[in-house]
Amino acid sequence: MNAAVVTPRRRIAIPLVLAGITLVAYFSALNRNQPLIWAVAAVLSASLVIGFAWPHWLAGRLTVRRSGPAKAAEGKVINLSVTVENRGWLPRFMVEVVDRLPFVGAGEGRAPGGVSLGLIGYIPGLGRRDFEVSLVCEKRGLYQLGPVGLSTSFPLGLAEARRAGKEGSSTLVVYPEIFPIAAWPLQGAPSLIHRGGHFLPSGSGSAEFRGLREYRRGDNPRHVHWPTSARLSQLMVKEYEPLASPCLYLVLDLAADANVGRGKHATLEYAVKITSSLARLACDNGMPVRLAGQGKQALDLGTGQGEAHFGEMLERLAIVDADGKTPYFRVLDKVAGDCLAGETVVTFLAEPSERVLYTLQSLALLRARGAHLLAVCFDRPSFLPSGGGVSVTESALFAGLLDLGAQVVPVRRGDDLMRLFNR
């Protein structure tokens, strides 16, 4: 069965009109005393009684349950299982299953409302009906589902009876979509080289030989200097002065006025998708990665590696929202205070033009601390319904980023992110 969005119905007009016609029929019958008019009035009265009473009788002995996954990925299809049971002896007809599923329509920015999961034409006495509904998780987020219920206005559509399900509400976490990135020239922090053979991308630099020292537990065996070890009869290893290794610092802008667009075509949604994909690249290649941002609550996930760390990042990114008041340059100033020399700091720029100069100053501070900059610049007007305003890519910020030697990736609404990040 396919789900459909339930729209509010104006059910009061038809009963009022029918009640008015019934009163007119009775008034005419009293004045004319004709059997036919009495019969018409009786039929109209019976229609009113049946139209209001029968829907409540139909829903009275029915129960409904809905079950489904607690976690899903953005853009993927999930299956919801629905069971409707008739605990009465008599059959029921034309019963609709209605649920509150906020993720339906979230991609377009629609307000959450009731969703019709299906219309059941016939349920036998003491019987049940089972069916599945396939729905697309349009947008990442944490959603409160339900409660699921039943609705019927059979047979005349004069009144609608509703009955809530027994299961109550449940939650669904939709994780952000991840697109593959084959390689990206990320650069890293000097203090992390030679700690387990991190992946070194192109342009990240190398290390200089500093001297020899005695072997210590945990040293990389590949750095043993065998000629000297044989001459001194003890293991000696080469010591290096590190220049670079991969380390990634992802910094989201969670200020409310920096997020433009609706639904899945908002700048924050693009930023979260890019952040998740870069984090996937880092964890797949053993790169240390961390995450920061400042909304109503601080987003602060320390440096880590591996699947467990990536899973924790996805949990945070699934529920993060642009609900903060802290300007982005304040967040970048804080990042500059603890970033490592040589670390790649990924920034997402979609803020109002009046804060451009402050942001440039914070980015210059990051460069002075030895950080490399990867700036994702959103073309703000393309995300606005009117398409008006000053484009970030045409502003002083864009020129300032180039002066700072930053890697700049301009992003417009509707861009193919996988193509942008796999050039």
From TrEMBL:
Pfam families: DUF58 (PF01882)
All copies of domain DUF58, residue ranges: 212-325
Keywords carried by this UniProt record: Membrane, Transmembrane, Transmembrane helix
Record bears the keyword Membrane: yes
Transmembrane segments: 12-30, 36-57
Protein's UniProt name: Uncharacterized protein (DUF58 family)
